[in-house]
Design goal:
Length: 337
């Protein structure tokens, strides 16, 4: 039997209008009970799916959104086909009101297809919604998105930005793993993913421990929580998270932000470039580059380039927007050769 996930630590009474700095920079997850229970959308969601759908429809634009549709036999899973050669869902375009109407129609159907509208920008598709349904991030300007669907099962994945996910309709179960559990989660392809992020290939509801034996070790480090309308979850950068919607109608609002300047590139691009240019070197050369990365990246400090006159340190000087722009142009020139 697999170990049970430990409960995620809970915080109560957090001021939604002025989120504290220690929470926004946290490196551990927290459940924020009742954080957005005062939102009109969360109150509608707590009342009924019909009230939540009506409230959202009042803000919906006419712009078509992308909806993932999976057959009933998928059981809500949004991921690969068993052979990994394709995905077990198709994508269609539909308006938000049409998606909401379909979810209500299928609510009592045990053989309903899976409908999943993920990561849809609120300010574009639901203009005005945030006026009375928002969090106070101070100087931060996070990206606010909405996620709507029925009983979906989203495989464990990780995101570079920090994330606060607010449940406003339906119930969700979140299972999280610290970043260092990478090797125990059996992550799929990096460059051909269902929704932009690499996912775990383990079916959490029926894990195949013969194929994925180290998943048992991952579960020893797992934390989990069930969230209802008004609850929120702080997911720190790069924590693996599996999200399961438990009801026939679910809505979640989330905020993404990075603790780095906007001009900094995503580290994922550096990883992919290193795979292309370093991973397949002869072992001895790879060890040389391991030391170079340690020296110039992971252990870099004020002494790394102290022996070089400040005016000519180039990329070894502290990075800023102008220097980043110059370096990006140089890298693009090299990649396009």
């Amino acid at each position: 039997m697999l170990p049970a996930a430990e409960p995620i630590e809970e915080l109560h009474g957090v001021d939604a209008a002025a989120l504290p700095e220690h929470l926004l920079t946290s490196t551990r997850p927290y459940v924020l009970r009742g954080l957005v229970a005062h939102w009109p959308l969360a109150r509608a969601g707590a009342a009924s799916m019909h009230e939540a759908a009506a409230y959202l429809t009042g803000f919906a634009s006419d712009a078509p959104a992308t909806v993932s549709v999976a057959p009933p036999e998928a059981g809500g899973h949004i991921g690969y086909r068993p052979d990994l050669l394709g995905f077990g869902f198709a994508q269609q375009k539909a308006s938000l009101p049409a998606v909401l109407d379909a979810l209500l129609r299928y609510a009592d159907d045990p053989a309903a297809p899976t409908l999943y509208l993920g990561s849809t920008t609120i300010d574009t598709w639901l203009p005005g919604l945030r006026e009375h349904n928002d969090l106070g991030f101070g100087a931060l300007q996070p990206l606010a998105s909405i996620w709507i669907g029925n009983r979906t099962r989203i495989p464990a994945h990780q995101d570079v930005p920090d994330n606060i996910a607010c449940v406003v309709a339906g119930r969700r179960r979140a299972t999280l793993f610290p970043p260092e559990q990478l090797q125990n989660l059996y992550i799929g392809p990096l460059d051909r993913t269902p929704a932009g992020q690499a996912i775990s290939l383990v079916d959490f509801d029926a894990p195949d421990l013969q194929r994925f034996p180290r998943f048992a070790e991952a579960m020893r480090h797992a934390v989990s929580a069930e969230l209802g309308p008004g609850d929120a979850l702080m997911i720190p950068s790069m924590w693996w998270h599996r999200m399961q919607a438990l009801d026939a109608f679910n809505v979640l609002v989330n905020y993404w932000w990075r603790q780095s300047p906007r001009w900094m590139d995503t580290p994922m691009n550096a990883l992919l470039h290193a795979i292309m240019s370093v991973r397949d070197l002869p072992p001895a050369q790879r060890e040389i580059w391991r030391e170079a990365f340690r020296h110039y990246v992971f252990d870099a400090d004020t002494q790394t380039a102290a022996h070089i006159p400040e005016a000519v340190r180039g990329v070894l000087a502290p990075m800023d927007e102008a220097r980043s722009r110059e370096l990006r142009a140089r890298l693009l020139q090299g990649l396009n050769r």
